[in-house]
Amino acid sequence: MAITLGESNDGKVLEVSLTGKLAKGDYEAFVPVVERLVRQHGQIRMLVAMHDFHGWTAGALWEDTKFAAQRFRDIERLALVGETKWQHGMAVFCKPFTAATVRYFDHTALSEARAWLEGEEGAHEPVKG
Fold it and tell me: Among 100, 108, 98, which Cα is nearest to 129's?
């Protein structure tokens, strides 16, 4: 499986770790967790950490597009943590598809990404990738 999920801040923050290539089946585990957390909290914050991540299969890309359309307003903040230039570009690309405040952090700044999601002071600007 290319996706691992974890919750923090009483479920108000969902951490998603991506490795390899996402397949359509990965969304079968991911979407119900997001739906449950949104029912519990209204809006959630999400950290997506990409390590050795190579994108999506065609089926997974379609699931991702449907997810973005359905959950447009349910994510308040989205921290993308990555290792490559194209992952940094994802932060710019996904902004029109979400009402969330989106920021990219280099993989060396994971703790800063978590602090920004938690709303802690001193975490105003992301590390440039």
Answer: 108
pTM, rounded to two decimals: 0.81
Overall domain count for the chain: 1
Q: Output the tens digit of pLDDT for each of the chain's 129 residues.
A: 588 999 988 889 999 999 998 888 888 888 999 999 999 999 999 999 999 888 888 888 778 778 877 887 899 999 989 887 666 566 655 665 677 888 889 999 999 999 999 885 444 444 444
Tell me if 123 is assigned to some domain. Answer: no
Sheet of 13-22, strands arranged across: 3-8, 13-22, 44-56, 75-82, 101-106
Report the distance separating Cα 52 and Cα 57, nearest Å: 15
